[in-house]
Amino acid sequence: MSSEAEMIAFQKAAVYDLLRILKKNQKDGSSDTEKEYSIADLEKLFDAYIAGKEG
């Protein structure tokens, strides 16, 4: 079982990752090859983090 400090570090990393994805999705008129995520994609990512799996 993970220690409380490890669990908090994981939670912070997960929130940071997801925040970066959301910010990338807000870019308008971008012609680069960065992937855009649909709401369904984001839901799957949240579910994966909650379940403790890689998304």
Can you give a write-up of this model?
The chain is mostly helical. The protein has helices at about 5-25, 40-50. The protein starts with a helix and ends with a helix.
Write the layout of secondary structure elements.
Elements: H1 4-25, H2 39-51
Task: Write a concise keyword list for the protein shown above.
55 residues, mainly alpha, 2 helices
Order of helices and strands: HH
Proportion in β-strands = under 5%
Shape: elongated
Low-confidence stretches: none
Number of strands: 0
User: Helical segment tally?
Assistant: 2
C-alpha end-to-end distance? 21 Å
Query: Radius of gyration, rounded?
Result: 13 Å
In brief:
Helices cover 64% and strands 0% of the residues. It is mainly α and 55 residues long.
